Recover the amino acids of this structure.
């Protein structure tokens, strides 16, 4: 068991970040959040970090214009804060190979559908739920996966399905999926804290509890 030193990247309201903090506070997740980084100045996640006395850093793409420049600044921030594991919590910005290589198999993302369905470019937030409803899927859910060089693609760590109901709107489905997200993100992180994840190609094997 080794305490994860988390860097959390978020672009929005930060409810997944809040759920991770709550799991840490309840002793269900062996981690500490070293820094919250956002690419959006008004992200609720930044405010949440401040309220919890966690270093909050806004990195502007107006300052770091090129993606490589941006991720060089991001890498410096994460390194300076002693981060050894990265959690994307509604981070709607592409990560360059620089970060992915530096934190190989140490970056998790949460996606609001059951990958490999309803993932890829443009599939974020309510777009995902609209696509699920338009396709007439009867189940959706949440996926926590490792980040590799391909968007929404790396080994799946935890998934949880939820039913799609006949009268669902994108909003009602999003709310049901979000509950699952909040549950499984900490669960997936705890597997890494307990060093129970083994990667074999695209497959992640979770070792049983010792
Ligand atoms: C979450 O639903 C997350 O799954 C989604 O953004 C939302 C962020 O909410 N991420 C993606 O769509 C990534 N493709 P939050 O800011 O309340 O955690």
């Amino acid at each position: 068991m080794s305490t994860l030193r988390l860097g959390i990247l978020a672009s929005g309201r930060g409810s997944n970040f809040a759920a991770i903090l709550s799991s840490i506070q309840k002793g269900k997740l062996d981690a500490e959040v070293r820094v919250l980084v956002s690419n959006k100045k008004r992200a609720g996640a930044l405010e949440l970090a401040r309220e919890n006395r966690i270093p909050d850093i806004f990195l502007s793409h107006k300052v770091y214009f090129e993606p490589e420049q941006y991720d060089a600044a991001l890498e410096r921030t994460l390194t300076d804060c002693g981060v050894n594991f990265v959690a994307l919590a509604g981070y709607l910005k592409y990560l360059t190979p620089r970060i992915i290589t530096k934190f190989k198999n140490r970056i998790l993302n949460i996606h609001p559908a059951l990958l490999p369905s309803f993932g890829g470019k443009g599939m974020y937030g309510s777009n995902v739920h609209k696509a699920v409803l338009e396709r007439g899927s009867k189940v959706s859910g949440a996926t926590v996966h490792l980040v590799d060089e391909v968007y929404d693609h790396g080994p799946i760590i935890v998934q949880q399905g939820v039913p799609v109901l006949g009268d669902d709107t994108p909003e009602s489905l999003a709310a049901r999926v979000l509950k699952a997200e909040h549950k499984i993100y900490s669960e997936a992180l705890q597997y890494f804290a307990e060093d129970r994840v083994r990667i074999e190609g695209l497959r992640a094997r979770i070792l049983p509890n010792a």
In short: The mean pLDDT is 97. The chain is about 35% helix and 25% strand. Residues 1-104 form a domain with the Rossmann fold fold (CATH 3.40.50.170). Residues 10, 12-16, 89-90, 110-112, 124-125, 128, 178, 181 surround glycinamide ribonucleotide (CB under 6 Å).
